[in-house]
Amino acid sequence: MITIRIITAEASYPVRHEVLRKGKPIDSCRFEGDELPTTNHYGLFDNDKLQAIISLFENSNPIFEENKQMQIRGMAVLEHNQGKGYGKQLVQYCENLLVASDTALIWFNARENARGFYQKLGYTIQGEPFNIEGIGIHYVMWKKLSV
Fold it and tell me: Is the pLDDT of residue 18 over 70?
């Protein structure tokens, strides 16, 4: 049975580590703002085992005009479960939450290899690719959620 529920930042670290920071110290999985009351972390569980994570940060990007923006960070699906739709379920779950809270725009820095995944979900690339040192090429991607 698949469920999505709120988790702590710390609960997300093992998945962040395995998928996003493999070979780096576990401390690299702690993101600035993880513990803010405006940040929420969600886990997708299959039979009560954490398989995928996503975090929502209240963070405005100045390249967008919308007042109420949220940023996705740390979106990851354990490798053996990629392709099962878990990532799509998490993103859509968060979009629904944000629409209900009148968030105007969601944005994030997507890894180059995830660009197609997000484009299939209706996200648009903004600007040119850029490199995050030690992590790789990224694209700013976004989607308007409400008017």
Answer: yes
